[in-house]
Amino acid sequence: MRAPLDAIAKDNFARETSWKLIHDWYRAILPNTRHAEPRSLFGESADIAIATQPDEFWTVTEARSADRIMDEVAEIVEGKARRKPDRTIAAFIIDFLESREEPATIEEIRQAFISADYRVIDKTMRGELSRLAMAGRIERVRTGVYAAVHTSEVHQPPSAVKQGTGPIFAGVAGELARVPSFPSANEHENTTLHKLHERIKKRLDSLLRGLGNARGRYSQLDDVLSDYRSAIACDEISALDIDDLWISGAGLIAQARSFAALDPSKQVTEPLEPQLQALLGEIARLHGALVMGFAKGRELAEKSGIPLLTAEEFRKLFEYERSIVRWMLESDQFAMSDRVRSLFEEVDRLLVMTSESSEHLATIGYPIIRNLIIFGANALGAAERIAGRLALVGLPVNLAVVGMLAFFRDNLSSIMGFSSSVPELRAYLEYHLTRLEIEWQEASRKKNS
């Protein structure tokens, strides 16, 4: 350690500039004489001020050289450190723009910070400008130019996005719950649907009896059949939940396709007996006919609301869905009803344990994840309307705080990636996330002032 310090001590440039501080500070900590005690050269307050500078402070950029960084360290040592700002970056920007009669460029805003002795990282300032403009707190006149927004011109928030085809989510009794999706009154009287329903139940019982003790060898198929049996078990079709029937049926169809395409010479999965495979295929076809007999089922089967995407975009969508579903099942921060948990367990089996294409699987999971995110987005809108107090309107506090905010915190990348397929949803999310961030910054400022 002493050799490089001795070299710095002999260097004329180091002795005549702020770089001398490095030598002097280390010499105080590591004195040359045997009996000298280590000491703080600058004093405790300056040491703490230097040690607590953010990473950005020490980062060399084109606009901020290493020499400039050492000069600023010297300013701290000499007691010339800039005072702690009494306003947030957002508040400073808004105040500055409102004090002007004309728009300001980014460079003019940067110079305003410098003139006010307010240190701010350029990237942070630019990010704050973008967030304020998106939230309607300031106006982006054109690229790199911003202006104040007068009260009469405040940007109106995006319209709330409604949940579409697929399971509808709601907050009930402290949990994330699902709204039942029953057949219409006209469909109750449809004799063809009654016959299909009864035939499926009989064929399913025959398949389960035929599998017998062998069900243990086909664990995935057994799980899928158990789910489907629960969805179809009611005595009357008026009690069928079409969403449950659709998602459990999707798993059933995937299993039927998988066994039909099974090649024993290339795969370790044991094939079904021919009569059992025929029964499985028949049930899958009967299920398709039953689902298509309900208006809600036709909407789901016809991929209502599914965006037109490329194969690569569907692959990414599939990954976003799988990540979100796994979080829903593994996180202990989200309170959900048994019906919701069962739904995500079925989706998880579909996304993880089948050989279907990612495009097909993403299409199945799409309406479920879309409606979940829309439910969360509307919760964010409610939170923003009450100034970030975290008790979301219409939702129990434990769901709002422990669940929904954790959901967005841990899955933000996947949520925003998924929402890119629904432009109005992404805009709605970005607006309210930005507003919440601004409100929390203002609350923190008031708390610390």
Features:
mainly alpha, 5% strand, elongated, two-stranded antiparallel ribbon, de novo design (two linked rop proteins), 449 residues, single chain, Arc Repressor Mutant, subunit A, 3-stranded antiparallel sheet
Give an overview of the whole structure:
The protein has 449 residues and is mainly alpha-helical. It has 4 domains: 76 residues, no CATH class; 65 residues, Arc Repressor Mutant, subunit A (Orthogonal Bundle), CATH 1.10.10.10; 109 residues, de novo design (two linked rop proteins), CATH 1.20.1440; 138 residues, no CATH class. It is 62% helix and 5% strand. It contains 20 helices and 5 strands. The chain has a 3-stranded antiparallel β-sheet with strand order 1-3-2. The chain has a two-stranded antiparallel ribbon with strand order 4-5. Strand 2 and strand 3 form a beta hairpin. The two termini are 44 Å apart. About 6% of the residues have low confidence.
- The average pLDDT is 78
Q: What strand order characterises the main sheet?
A: 1-3-2
Low-confidence stretches: 80-84, 151-155, 386-402
Number of helices: 20
Give the termini distance in whole angstroms.
44 Å
Shape: elongated
Major sheet size, sense and barrel closure: 3 strands, antiparallel
Radius of gyration of CA atoms, rounded to a whole number: 31 Å
Please bin the fraction of helical residues. Answer: 55-70%
What number of structural domains do the residues give? Answer: 4
Strand composition percent = under 5%
Number of strands: 5
Write the element-wise H/E pattern from the N-terminal end onward: HHHHHHHEHHEEEEHHHHHHHHHHH
Helix/strand-derived category reads mainly alpha
